[in-house]
Amino acid sequence: MSFIRDQKGIGHIVLPLLVLAVLVIGFSGYEVMHANKAAAPTSSTSTTSTTASTAVPATIKTESDLQQAATALNASTSQMETQLSSTSLDSSINQML
């Protein structure tokens, strides 16, 4: 005693729900990506300014800018090498074993 005979299932309800779920997931992913990009420069700027004693140019346009960046990188590498000692690392590993 059905009034509508062309009922074929619930596909007409599932499809909009699926589209809505994809939109929510896509929007959430976009927001997370956008938040990570906004947070990245502040954290990297603070670590760069504390570890490098030489000023690093914001953009590299000339060879002198490249040389200045290389000098800053070498300075930070030498600072890290002096701060890290292999003997303390070895003793920490030996304690774990």
Biggest sheet statistics: none
Number of domains in the coordinates?
A: 2
Report the oligomer.
single chain
| Stretches with pLDDT under 50, minimum 5 residues | 43-52
Entry keywords:
mainly alpha, 2 domains
Please describe what this structure looks like.
It is a single chain. By secondary structure, the chain is mostly helical. It has 2 domains: 8-51; 55-97. The chain has 3 helices and no strands. The model is unreliable at 43-52 (pLDDT under 50).
How are the secondary structure elements laid out?
Elements: H1 11-51, H2 63-83, H3 86-96
In brief:
This protein has 97 residues and is mainly alpha-helical. It has two domains: 44 residues; 43 residues.
